[in-house]
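Below is how a single chain appears once it has passed through the pipeline. First comes the sequence as given, then the structure the pipeline wrote out for it. We keep one example in the README because the format questions we get most often are answered faster by looking than by reading.
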Amino acid sequence: MSNGRSLNVSPEQLERVKTALQRNSFPSKQALATELGKSKSTIDNFFNGKRIDRLNFQEICEKLGLDWQSVAEIADEEATLYVKRSPVEAKCVESVGLLGCLIRIKASERMGKTSLINWLLKQSQQRGYHTVYWNLLQPREAVTQDLDQL
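Resulting structure:
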């Protein structure tokens, strides 16, 4: 289960995650840790289903070619726990179905932006849409330099 700032691999996905290490030609967890510039304990915790920082979790998944949302243990009540506070949420859900929709979420710290995003992703998935969570705070240089990569 996650608390918003940390995630862990769900027990059902541990074997898939371990297979991804081999599939991506990493001879060991240490090699992955070195490649990512992470501590071995962070990588060990990831592969043992223990909680690690959300950004580290997402970066490891990206390096292994895994969709972080499909391997993370996220309680259903966490995604539905979001408390709607204004008509803006309804407009966001309505907009999700529009072709080329872009939703900008801007607020001060600790105002529920991540919860809103998780809630919107869950709503979208319930409508049968495929979702992608992409953290633009840490884009890969190749992606920012080549629009075809983007």
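The longest helix spans residues 113-126.

See the next section for the split statistics.
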